[in-house]
């Protein structure tokens, strides 16, 4: 994508947002999710996530282009965590690494995720707050199983979560 991303906003604290009451971990943590919209973007709308769950152990493959240390590059990003309360809130430890990196000192990013709204099959609206070193950044993302599908009623769902659909950056807007 030939899009110059803006950096994510730095925040002092992660927001406490309400998780979707209908969240089903077994459905959410299977298959592939594509990021189709983001409130604040680095390269978020070019990402896909492949989550898996085994008992309480969560693993997420989040490979993609990220801006780390003011340099945008492709990173392999394995993430792990636990799904202890199955409520739609979970924490991941991610270790982004460039394919050509030989460093034994991995970057560690702690990511807190809240699934704010979902039908567990076609879409999810998530809040994520990432901490790397002492810096926290946040973003709101729309995830879809089929990145080309138009989700009926999604704008109303976003508005109910105080997100303006007209200000979200979508993959369509940057292609």
Tell me the radius of gyration.
15 Å
Can you summarize the main beta sheet?
8 strands, antiparallel, barrel
The name of the CATH architecture is Beta Barrel
| Fraction in beta strands | 35-45%
The third-level CATH topology is Lipocalin
> What is the rounded distance between the termini?
7 Å
Q: Would you state the CATH class?
A: Mainly Beta
What is the mean pLDDT?
86
Q: Please state the structural category.
A: mainly beta
> Element order, helices and strands?
EHEEEEEEEEEEEHEH
Keywords: Hemostasis impairing toxin, Secreted, Signal, Toxin
Main location: secreted
Organism: Triatoma brasiliensis
GO molecular function: toxin activity
Describe this structure in words.
Helices cover 9% and strands 43% of the residues. With 175 residues, the protein is mostly beta strands. It has a single domain, classed as Calycin beta-barrel core domain (Lipocalin), CATH 2.40.128.20. Strands 2-3-4-7-8-10-11-12 form an 8-stranded antiparallel β-barrel. A hairpin with a 2-residue loop joins strand 3 and strand 4. The radius of gyration is 15 Å and the shape is globular. The mean pLDDT is 86.
């Amino acid at each position: 994508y030939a899009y110059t991303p803006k950096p994510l906003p730095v925040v002092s604290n992660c927001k406490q947002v309400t998780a979707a009451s209908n969240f089903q971990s077994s459905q959410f943590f299977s298959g592939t999710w594509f990021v189709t919209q983001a409130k604040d973007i680095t390269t978020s709308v070019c990402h896909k996530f492949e989550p898996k769950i085994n008992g309480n152990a969560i693993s997420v493959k989040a490979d993609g282009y990220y801006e780390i240390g003011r340099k945008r590059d492709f990173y392999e990003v394995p993430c792990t965590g636990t799904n202890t309360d199955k409520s739609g809130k979970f924490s991941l430890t991610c270790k982004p690494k460039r394919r050509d990196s030989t460093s034994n000192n991995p970057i560690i990013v702690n990511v807190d995720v809240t699934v704010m709204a979902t039908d567990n099959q076609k879409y999810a609206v998530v809040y994520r707050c990432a901490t790397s070193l002492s810096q926290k950044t946040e973003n709101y993302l729309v995830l879809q199983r089929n990145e080309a599908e138009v989700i009926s009623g999604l704008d109303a769902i976003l508005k109910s979560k105080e997100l303006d659909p007209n200000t979200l950056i979508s993959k369509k807007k940057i292609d």
